[in-house]
Write a structure and sequence with these properties.
The chain has 166 residues and is of the alpha+beta class. 40% of the residues lie in helices and 23% in strands. A hairpin with an 8-residue loop joins strand 1 and strand 2. It is globular, with a radius of gyration of 17 Å.
Length: 166
């Protein structure tokens, strides 16, 4: 049986869990599969193992730190930067809205976000804290509002289509 996308990234997640303390696997995979505890609060972190220059299925709408492992190098991108990068796309990956799901390339990520194994934990904690700063709270709110509106649109559309086709 073929590996799922989640299983393909398992090596990076296992390595991440060994290198970063206060980490657990999430029980809520719809929000991400890895969580990091900072000051008693659990934050979802999206950990991806890349085998090419392309990073698939980036969900900026979740407003979470993105961690990429590629060829022995880590990239730790704070949530507001993930939103900024994805916001440059005209459409998403298999969707019209890039914040829902998008693909990026490693070339789009600034070198300042690269780090080694020994720097990983410190960079992850810093990225999470940066994303929670007051100056970025409006970005998180916009992503939360977009998610809520998409859920409402989904329900309205399902209801309308069901009413017509039943």
């Amino acid at each position: 049986m073929a590996e799922s996308l989640r299983q393909k990234g398992q090596k990076a997640k296992d390595r991440f869990i060994k290198l970063v303390t206060n980490v657990r696997r999430s029980n809520d995979f719809s929000s991400g599969d890895t969580e990091v505890n900072i000051d008693g609060v659990w934050y979802h972190v999206d950990v991806k193992d890349c085998t090419s220059n392309t990073i698939n299925q980036i969900r900026a709408i979740r407003y979470q730190t993105l961690v990429i492992y590629f060829d022995g190098v880590w990239y730790v991108i704070p949530p507001q930067e993930v939103v900024r990068l994805v916001g440059q796309r005209n459409r998403g990956q298999h969707t019209e809205i890039p914040f829902e799901c998008a693909a990026l390339t490693l070339n789009q990520i600034e070198s300042v976000y690269r780090c080694s194994d020994s720097q990983l934990a410190e960079r992850v904690y810093a990225a999470i804290r940066m994303g929670q700063q007051e100056q970025f709270k409006e970005v998180k709110k916009i992503m939360d509002d977009l998610y809520s509106e998409l859920i409402k649109l989904k329900e309205r559309t399902k209801s309308s289509v069901t009413a017509i086709l039943e």
